[in-house]
Amino acid sequence: MTEGIEIAITGGAGPHEAAAIVAAIDAALTEEYLALATPPPRPVPGAWVMSGRPQVVVGPPTTFQGLSAPTGFEEEGDSTEP
Fold this sequence. Notes:
By secondary structure, the chain is mainly alpha-helical. 34% of the residues lie in helices and 0% in strands. The chain has two helices and no strands. The relative contact order is 0.08.
C-alpha cells in the first residue's frame, strides 16, 4: 500500500526500526483501505418497524377433536335439568 509514498524517518532510527515503522504504516493504510472498500451492513429494522409489517394470522381450528359436540351448544329438550 505504501508504493509511491515517501516517508522521512528521522531521529536516529536504524534500518530495522525504519522497516518496522513502514510496516506499521502499511498495515494501518491497508486496514483503512479494506474498511472503506466494504459496504456498510444493512440496518436492522427496529421492533416498531417490524410490528407494522403484515403478519400471518392463524385462525382458530375449524375441526373438532373426538366425537362429542362442543360444550354450550345444547338443543332444546337436551337439558339435564328436571
